[in-house]
Amino acid sequence: MSGPAARPAGHIAASLREQIRAAIDAGGEIGDDELMRTVERTVDRWEGSVRLVSSERLRLVRQLFHSFRGLDVLEPLLKDDSITEIMINGHRQLFAERAGRVEPLREQFESRERLEDLIQAIVAQVNRVVNESSPIVDARLADGSRVHIVLPPASLSGPVVTIRKFPKRPLLMDGLVACGCLTEDAAGFLRTLVRAGFNIFISGGTGSGKTTFLNALSRSIPDEERVVTIEDSAELQLQVPNLVRLETRNANTEGKGALPMRQLIRASLRMRPNRIIVGEVRGEEAADMLAAMNTGHDGSMSSGHANSAKDMLSRLETMVLAAAELPVAAIRQQILSAVDVIVHLSRMRDHSRKVLEISQLAGIEGGEIRLEPLYRYEAGPDGASMLRRTTAELRRSDKWERAGGEPFGASSSSAKEERDDGD
Coiled-coil segments, which residues (predicted)? Predict the structure, then answer.
């Protein structure tokens, strides 16, 4: 765009949108094809002082069309499979993550009001409310993408929106092996753990792939089992026939109608579930999750933010303490009884995501829970780093053998070597 009277593209779009809206109102409801023709005619007839080159014209036509039929400038970004996350810092500043790297985008919203309108449309689809008195909310898009919104006065940068996209085809365990997240041996081990009904907790930092991994693990749940999932914002894509999905809800503007995680976990216990899967525990609901794992719901799973498997145990203790004033020794015993295995994920410097540790809870020593690594990401004799099996033996061998797993651990390795020598 050039010329002394040039105006920002946002003003152009706003002006043309009003013309298109007037044409639609005059002609009644129209289909997508007719809307596109109306948009193109309106842009072609536009006689402003700004001349648009062909690429700018095409971008403007798409933006105007998506403002009526989609999510405005976000629509092409959401359809771009190479983008995994979209970050909006006010209406003029957009960023996207591609292949683990964050880059600025040329796109921007025509005005703050337009972005705010879009935010209200998004939260209305999932029956949520966000405004100045309640400026923070989690939501989701129709395709399952997770949306986190922060409005002023909590945000000093204007409306801030973060959209976490998920693959149209969720990554299965084989896909995680192919991309180097874990080894085939570890993947087979985890599949058997899930079938055997081990209670598994997944830990990791932000963006480490906890939800993706939870989805992949769930594919090993037997079809005959009834599963209840509980999430703040429904993201899990389980493929289980007998599945119940529950989602929390914030209070309305009158402070009523809230459905907290703790209430949903308690409700799920009356639904006769074989397994309960909590997308992520962040607070007092950890106490209810552990109670569910301790009351016959073998094979339950959850995830949480932590820098290591050991840190995850400390965080669980803190969360349970927030829910009830119990002795620390009692809380640790409850965690030990409830959780069998912790899988820790991390995002590496090269932006890849890997399993760094698969550890079992091996008892209490010196008053603290002892973690025993079964697999650990480390360098081998050849200098190459990968997820390697340790010599530790699996303690809950009863569950493991009922699921048809071969003996696991140092003794099984020795037996295998003896068989190989005999051959």
Answer: none
